[in-house]
């Protein structure tokens, strides 16, 4: 069985930033020339880093259809750029750059104009605030509509601190010593600062910062309530103030990554008065506020707090002038008659409004596919894709959309197309900017499953689920295919029919791959999600096994050559499956698996997840009675470890705040004690995602070889 390594160089589309750089009228034909930059990341094994690069494309159009499109020049690596944004007119560009100077990491804020750098501010030396936030959760970099100011989010400045025993300081000196520049506080060197957990480590207290382009003066905004952490900010109409999402962080912070259920609200702070006003509900979670092109309305997503960490969203609209809030698309409990199952999206694209400010576009999971959905003011229009696969809206500018489209056997390509007029969305036509070649030797299909009656959920009856099956087309006559089963993590997430490098490579190696979206996954209605908490370790495990058993009945697969691979809650399921079906799986690979909820709750950044998924209501002053801990243990894979026979390969990230590595080590020790074949790979400098180039590449190779070895291939 050969392994092709060059696949690990496959580029991934990161973001697409359309810019109207040039608009021309040729002869008396009204052609617009539209340039845009697409940003990509690619694994570079030699440099052991994900390199970021951009590629420019040119599009000729006549405001209704694309006449010509294609690449304009070659790729250019983007080094050190953390954030960049063009001004609304395209005349200027702001860049946040990190650079290591004499061993010290510094951040610079650059303002570019046409062919020169107007300004470069050394933010580290200026010391107005801490590091600028470059993440998707809080981060933003936004020009004012007037193009005179720039808004961004940074860590609040912390007081300079020194030891009580700093040499040369007398005991009776003032506790606070005034130095020439700033106050120095004694004895706070070891102060604990809570942060927002996995992937947001050392991000604790964000502040809104505004740069005055002309004077280069940076203002850290006052007036934000002390119990609120602001982020995802933008300028209000007429630049009178800032609109932002504020997360409550009292009594303590919980992990935010993959946790859309954190209490948060929309706020507005007026720059003149400093007055801060709450614009949305006090008891829900919001994200992705987006101002309409006519500056009259703000659309945003909203869902419930506590409970499942990802849920079906409401699409809400705030009218800036009437101050009224309306629900554009509500939560969908079960699939509607037109098949729409609700909005499941972690965020709206940076531009999502149609030019007429009447429609909002988004990509969202619909069962096992990612499609582009148009929401109208009163009803929901949908794009029904002619081709299968998954589409992701990257950006829209004056109704010209840029999307990424892929499928399990075809890497992502970029497509452009004009949004048709209202009500004719199904007449969408796309122009592909750069063809990617489908992998002719991989076939895929989506399978639907209805659990057997005895497994129906009495509280949420009649739910179904599905799976995506990838198969190598070339099969040796008379042979049967080995099968790799991959349940996703979350558990409230979803595997959609898009290009996933690792599964495509496994297929190229001759494995069939089954991606299971068990009950509790996103994209199937809110009831589907709510059916799982309290039933983890049984309902999800049985759904996966039911899908596997159903697929094996097709006859193309070797029942003696089945492996299971999963990360996080997917690792939880993998470990449960080899414990509950001990002779069935011949190899198991578990990445940062949840193995024991009762020991995880004390060290994870999401203790509420352990409580909720075990079937209890969470509140911050919950008392973990023995009965609750016992229930958590009983629902954990460690409970079944004594039955395990399957060889297990564990992969742990040293810096994992979500599912701390001690979970994997606890399971590792149990297997060692039982003399079950187990190997543990430890990845320093890697967190829960194990997504750095070293961990991803080494992890894939070792997983593939582990499966080959233990399936005797
Ligand atoms: C809410 C949450 O983070 N739950 C975790 C237990 C979990 O399963 N998270 C997944 C979304 C996850 O992290 N999946 C990645 C790492 C994967 O490899 O599957």
UniProtKB/TrEMBL annotation:
Q: Which domain of life is it from?
A: Eukaryota
Q: Which SUPFAM superfamilies match?
A: alpha/beta-Hydrolases, Peptidase/esterase 'gauge' domain
A GO molecular function annotation here is:
serine-type endopeptidase activity
Repeat keyword on record: no
- BP GO terms, sorted: proteolysis
Peptidase S9 prolyl oligopeptidase catalytic domain residues are 503-711
Keywords (alphabetical) are: Acetylation, Cytoplasm, Hydrolase
What Gene3D superfamilies is this protein classified in? alpha/beta hydrolase, TolB, C-terminal domain
Residue stretches making up the Acylamino-acid-releasing enzyme N-terminal domain: 39-439
UniProt xrefs under Pfam families: APEH_N (PF19283), Peptidase_S9 (PF00326)
The EC number of this protein is 3.4.19.1
Q: Which GO terms describe its cellular component?
A: cytoplasm
The protein's enzyme class: hydrolase
Q: Where in the cell is it found?
A: Cytoplasm
* Protein's UniProt keywords contain Hydrolase: yes
Give the protein's biological function. This enzyme catalyzes the hydrolysis of the N-terminal peptide bond of an N-acetylated peptide to generate an N-acetylated amino acid and a peptide with a free N-terminus. It preferentially cleaves off Ac-Ala, Ac-Met and Ac-Ser. Also, involved in the degradation of oxidized and glycated proteins.
In which family does this protein belong, per the annotation?
Belongs to the peptidase S9C family.
The record's listing under PANTHER family reads:
ACYLAMINO-ACID-RELEASING ENZYME, SERINE PEPTIDASE S9 FAMILY MEMBER
List the protein's name.
Answer: Acylamino-acid-releasing enzyme
């Amino acid at each position: 069985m050969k392994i092709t390594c060059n696949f690990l160089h496959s580029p991934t589309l990161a973001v697409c930033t359309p810019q109207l750089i040039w608009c021309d009228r040729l002869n008396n034909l009204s052609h617009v020339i539209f340039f845009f930059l697409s940003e990509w990341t690619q694994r570079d094994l030699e440099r052991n880093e994900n390199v970021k690069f951009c590629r420019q494309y040119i599009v000729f159009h006549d405001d209704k259809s694309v006449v010509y499109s294609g690449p304009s020049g070659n790729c250019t690596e983007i080094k050190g750029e953390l954030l960049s944004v063009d001004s609304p007119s395209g005349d200027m560009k702001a860049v946040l750059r990190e650079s290591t100077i004499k061993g010290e990491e510094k951040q610079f804020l650059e303002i570019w104009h046409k062919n020169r750098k107007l300004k470069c501010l050394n933010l580290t030396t200026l010391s107005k605030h801490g590091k600028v936030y470059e993440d998707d959760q809080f981060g933003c970099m936004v020009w004012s509509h007037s193009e005179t100011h720039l808004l961004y989010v940074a860590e609040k400045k912390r007081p300079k601190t020194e030891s009580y025993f700093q040499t040369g300081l007398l005991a009776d000196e003032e506790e606070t010593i005034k130095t020439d520049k700033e106050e120095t506080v004694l004895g706070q060197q070891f102060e604990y600062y809570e942060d927002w957990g996995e992937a947001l480590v050392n991000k604790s207290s964000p502040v809104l910062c505004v740069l005055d382009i002309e004077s280069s003066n940076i203002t850290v905004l006052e007036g934000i309530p002390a119990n609120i952490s602001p982020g995802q900010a933008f300028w209000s109409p007429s630049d009178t103030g800032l609109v932002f999402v504020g997360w409550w962080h009292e009594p303590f912070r919980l992990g935010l990554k993959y946790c859309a259920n954190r209490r948060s609200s929309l706020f507005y702070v007026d720059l003149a008065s400093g007055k801060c006003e709450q614009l949305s509900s006090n008891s829900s979670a919001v994200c992705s506020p987006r101002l309409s092109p006519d500056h009259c309305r703000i659309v945003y997503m909203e869902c419930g707090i506590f409970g499942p960490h990802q849920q079906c969203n409401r699409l809400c609209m705030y009218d800036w002038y009437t101050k009224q809030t309306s629900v554009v698309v509500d939560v969908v409990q079960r699939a509607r008659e037109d098949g729409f199952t609700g909005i499941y999206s972690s965020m709206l694209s940076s531009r999502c409004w149609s030019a007429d400010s009447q429609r909002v576009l988004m990509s969202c999971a619909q069962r096992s596919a990612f499609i582009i959905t148009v929401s109208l003011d009163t009803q929901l229009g949908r794009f029904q894709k002619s081709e299968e696969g998954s589409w992701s809206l990257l950006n829209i500018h004056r109704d010209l959309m840029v999307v990424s489209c892929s499928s399990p056997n075809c890497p992502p390509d970029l497509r452009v197309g004009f949004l048709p007029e209202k009500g004719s969305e199904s007449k969408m036509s796309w122009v592909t900017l750069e063809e990617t070649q489908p992998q002719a030797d991989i076939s895929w299909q989506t399978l639907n499953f209805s659990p057997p009656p005895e497994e129906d959920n009495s509280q949420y009856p009649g739910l179904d689920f599905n799976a995506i099956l990838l198969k190598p087309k070339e099969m040796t006559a008379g042979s049967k295919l080995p099968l790799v089963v991959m349940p996703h993590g979350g558990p409230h997430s979803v595997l959609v029919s898009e290009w996933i490098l690792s599964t495509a490579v496994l297929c190229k190696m001759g494995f069939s791959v089954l991606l299971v979206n068990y009950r509790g996954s996103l994209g199937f209605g809110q009831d589907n999600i709510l059916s799982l908490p309290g039933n983890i370790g049984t309902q999800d495990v049985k759904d996966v096994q039911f899908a596997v058993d159903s697929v094996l009945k097709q006859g193309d697969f070797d029942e003696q050559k089945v492996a299971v691979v999963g990360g996080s809650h997917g690792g939880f399921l993998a470990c449960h499956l080899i414990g509950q079906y001990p002779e069935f799986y011949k190899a198991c690979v578990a990445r940062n698996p949840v193995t024991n909820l009762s020991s995880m709750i004390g060290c994870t950044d999401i203790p509420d997840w352990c409580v909720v998924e075990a079937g209890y209501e969470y509140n911050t002053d919950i008392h973990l009675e023995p009965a609750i801990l016992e229930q958590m243990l009983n629902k954990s894979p460690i409970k079944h470890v004594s039955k395990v026979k399957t060889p297990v390969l564990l992969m742990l990230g040293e810096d994992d705040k979500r599912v701390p590595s001690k979970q994997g080590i606890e399971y590792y020790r149990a297997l060692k004690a039982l003399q079950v074949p187990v190997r543990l790979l430890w990845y320093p400098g890697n967190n829960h995602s194990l997504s750095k180039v070293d961990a991803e590449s080494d992890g894939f190779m070792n997983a593939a070889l582990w499966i080959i070895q233990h399936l005797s291939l």
